[in-house]
Amino acid sequence: MPIDRRTFLLSSSSLLSSGSALLAAEPAGLVPLVVNGKEAASFYCGPEWDKPFLYPIRTVSGKAISRGYPLEKIAGEPTDHAWHRGLWYGHGIVNGQDFWREQGREKTARLVGKGAPVVRKRGGRPSVTAEFSMVTPAGKSLGSMRQEWGIADRGSLRLIDATITMDADQGEPLVFGDTDDGGFAFRLNDAFRQDRGAKLRNSSGLETTEQIWGKPAHWVDYSAVIDGVPTGVAIFDHPGNLRYPTAWHARGYSLCAANPFATRSFSKGKGPDGSFTLAAGKQLRLRYRVVVHEGPLEPAAIEKLHGEWASR
Fold first, then answer.
1. Cα(58)–Cα(231) distance, rounded to whole angstroms?
2. CB of 234 closer than 8 Å to CB of 302
3. Nearest-5° angle of CA 242, CA 247, CA 253?
C-alpha cells in the first residue's frame, strides 16, 4: 500500500530532529530532508523513477524555483524533457547505454536502488546516501553508483552538496561516451529562461547561453528577479573532479549541467574525443555544490564562496 506523503514527511521530520539515523521506507519512494523544522527538499528514489533526484529546489524562505513538471502541473509551464526533475545526475552514453533520457524501459537504462537510502542529521544538517545498480534495459548491471546529498543553510544561502561515485564493480570497465546530454544538472522554472530576462553567467566573466555553453568554468550561475527579489542558483565544480574545470551544458531554457565527458560534442566535432574509461575495479568520484541564493550575489561573492568550498 502506498505511504501517504504528508504522513511520511511528519514522521520523518520527528526522527530527523532527534539526530538519529533513519532508514527511509523504500515503498514511499521519497526521503524528506528537513532544515530548521521545514522540508528543504525531498530525495526521490523509488522504483517508479528511472533515476533518483532532489526536488524541489527551494530558497531558504521556502520559494520553489525548480520546474514543477512532471511532478506538479503548473499552468503554462513547458512539458519537454520529462527527465529534467530538480537536481539529478545522469549520462547519455555509458557502455553504449543511455542513463540520461527516459524513453521507456525497453530503450533506456536506469538506476535501481540496492536498498533503502540512509538519512542522517548532524548539527542541523540533513544528508542522504543511497546505492544504485546501473542497469541496462536487458537487466544487466554494468556497475554501481553511490549518491550522497547534504543540505545546510547559511543566512540567505542554501548550500546543497552532492558526491556522485561511480564504481566499475562488475568485472568490466565503464566507458563514458562523448555526449553533451549528461552531467550533474538542474532544471529551474521559466523565470530562469534567458528569453524571459534571466542572466546566465560563468566564472570566466562570460554571459548568455551562446557564450557559456560548452565552455570550461569553475562555476555557472543562473539568476532572475522573482517577486522583486534577486534570486539564483549556482553550481560549483570541485578541483578534485575529473577534467576540472568542467565544461557546461548550459541551455537558455533553464537547464544547466556540469559535464566533463563532451569535449567533441561541445566543440561541434572539432575537439578531441571526450570519452573516459573507468577501469574495472576502479571508482570515479565527482563532487559538486549548489548555492541557492536570495538577494544580490555578484560574481566576486560567488567566486569567494567557491574558493572556500574548493579548498576543502
1. 11
2. yes
3. 135
pLDDT at position 15 = 33
Is residue 118 within 8 Å of 112, Cβ to Cβ?
A: no
For residue 26, pLDDT beyond 90? no
Q: Please give the sequence-ordered ranges of beta strands (E in DSSP) within the chain, or none if there are none.
A: 22-23, 30-35, 38-44, 53-55, 87-91, 110-113, 118-122, 125-135, 141-154, 157-167, 174-176, 182-187, 199-202, 219-226, 229-237, 247-250, 255-259, 276-278, 283-294
CA–CA separation, 138 vs 112, rounded Å? 13
Cis ω before 56 (30° cut-off from 0): yes
List pLDDT tens digits, range 283-303.
999 999 999 999 999 999 999
Letter string b/e over residues 178-192, b meaning 16 or more CB atoms within 10 A of that residue's CB: bbbbbbbbbbbbbbb
Identify whether 52 is preceded by a cis peptide bond (ω within 30 of 0): no
Residue 92, all three cell numbers: 547519455
Three-class DSSP labels, 191-218: HHCHHHCCEEEECCCCECHHHHCCCECC
Q: Which residues of 255-277 are buried (b: 16+ CB within 10 A; e: fewer)?
A: bbbbbbbbbbbbeeeeeeebebe
Helix ranges (DSSP H) in 130-268: 209-212, 263-266
Instruction: Decide: pTM greater than 0.85.
Output: yes
What digits encode the pLDDT tens for the residues 110-155? 999 999 999 999 988 999 999 999 999 999 999 999 999 999 999 9
Contact residues for 309 (Cβ-Cβ < 8 A; gap 6+): 236, 238, 289
Going by C-alpha positions, the residue among 160, 163, 183 that lies closest to residue 286 is: 163
Residue 28 — pLDDT band, cuts 50, 70, 90?
low
The C-alpha atoms of residue 31 and residue 44 are separated, in whole angstroms, by 6
